[in-house]
Specification:
Largest sheet: 4 strands, antiparallel
Protein name: diguanylate cyclase
Catalytic activity: 2 GTP = 3',3'-c-di-GMP + 2 diphosphate
CATH superfamily of the largest domain: Reverse transcriptase/Diguanylate cyclase domain
Radius of gyration: 28 Å
CATH topology of the largest domain: Alpha-Beta Plaits
Order of helices and strands: HEHHEHHHEHEEHEEEH
CATH architecture of the largest domain: 2-Layer Sandwich
Structural class: alpha+beta
Bound molecules: guanosine-5'-triphosphate
Oligomer: single chain
Strand order of the largest sheet: 4-5-3-8
Organism: Pseudoalteromonas aurantia 208
CATH class of the largest domain: Alpha Beta
Number of strands: 8
Number of helices: 9
Shape: elongated
Keywords: Membrane, Transmembrane, Transmembrane helix
Helix content: 55-70%
Strand content: 5-15%
Number of domains: 2
EC number: 2.7.7.65
């Protein structure tokens, strides 16, 4: 389409003299054409193949053709016979916008499915800066913001909330034996198993290195422990592979759970979790 547009314009039009060109207009219109091309390439690079991507691709392509015609219009002049080419320049953009509207509609449905999958990894808002790219979960800072909010709500809620800190046993040894990439895969797998076995209201984040933290809003200590035990059990069934061989002995996680009280602070709760987990590790080691 690009080649066809360039060829048609160059064959049917005549180049303007330099002093006839309006440079400010050309820079603005050229900038728009370049930006639509960048969006087009970004769409192809970042999105998976499928109907939404196809619609976005054709929509943006059509818009790019319009922008390109508009830009070339600054450099070429058309005789009476071919003046229709100038009049047509907005037409591809209209088709592009219609295609992109369909893309938005299907994207909305796609996003609903993704939102459902992300439910236990984020609550209320999305902030990419706090994402942990190894586990696909949010980082500790995201959790800290949520704990602060829950603490602020604690007085008006009839139920309190609980927090649990999890640590993978012998993760250093796993790193040494199977390498960082395998160890990163294990972190990802355990993060996924944890979120699969949480309730839709719970929130799991990566806390630090091989530690995960879970927030259980509106939950009593007994209820939280019940979910934690289920998560721990499911992680223990996980069998990672190394070159098709099963790796055993690295699917154990230790945990400590606390229930927040009205007098607690964020730092106080995190200290309770860290100390409790350290005691748990010491007692099992
Ligand atoms: N592959 C990988 N390793 C990490 C990452 N972050 C931290 N680590 C490693 O994780 C380990 C965490 O240390 P510990 O929690 O003391 O290790 P551990 O062997 O689980 O010790 P215990 O908890 O006492 O069983 C260290 O060896 C870190 O180098 C990461 O993002 N990827």
């Amino acid at each position: 389409m690009l080649m066809l547009t360039l060829l048609t314009v160059s064959q049917l039009g005549t180049l303007k003299h330099l002093d006839e060109i309006e440079w400010i207009d050309s820079i603005g219109e050229g900038g728009i054409a370049v930006m639509t091309l960048i969006w087009l390439l970004a769409t192809l690079v970042t999105r998976p193949k499928g109907a939404v991507t196809n619609l976005l691709f054709f929509g943006l392509s059509a818009m790019h053709i319009s922008m390109l015609l508009d830009f070339l219009d600054e450099f070429f002049i058309f005789s009476e016979r071919y003046n229709w080419l100038s009049s047509l320049e907005a037409f591809p953009a209209v088709i592009g916008m219609i295609l992109m509207s369909f893309a938005m509609y299907y994207w909305f449905h796609e996003q609903q499915v993704l939102n459902h999958l992300l439910q236990k990894k984020e609550r209320f808002y999305r902030t990419h800066g706090l994402n942990d790219y190894i586990t696909g979960l949010y980082k500790a800072d995201y959790m800290k913001q949520h704990i602060e909010q829950e603490l602020a709500l604690l007085n008006s809620h009839s139920h309190g909330f609980c927090l649990a800190l999890f640590d993978i046993k012998d993760f250093t040894r796993f790193n040494q034996q199977y390498g960082v990439i395998q160890a990163n895969n294990l972190l990802f797998d355990i993060g996924q198993i944890m979120t699969l076995n949480l309730r839709s209201t719970d929130l799991a984040c990566r806390f630090a290195s091989d530690c995960f933290i879970v927030l259980f809003p509106n939950t009593s200590y007994q209820e939280a422990v019940h979910v934690v035990e289920q998560v721990t059990k499911m992680v223990s069934y996980h069998t990672p592979y190394n070159n098709k061989k099963v790796i055993t002995g690295f699917s154990e996680i230790r945990w400590h759970c606390v229930e927040a009280a009205h007098t607690d602070s964020l730092d106080g709760l995190l200290a309770q979790l860290n100390n409790g987990l350290a005691q748990c590790k010491a007692s099992i080691a």
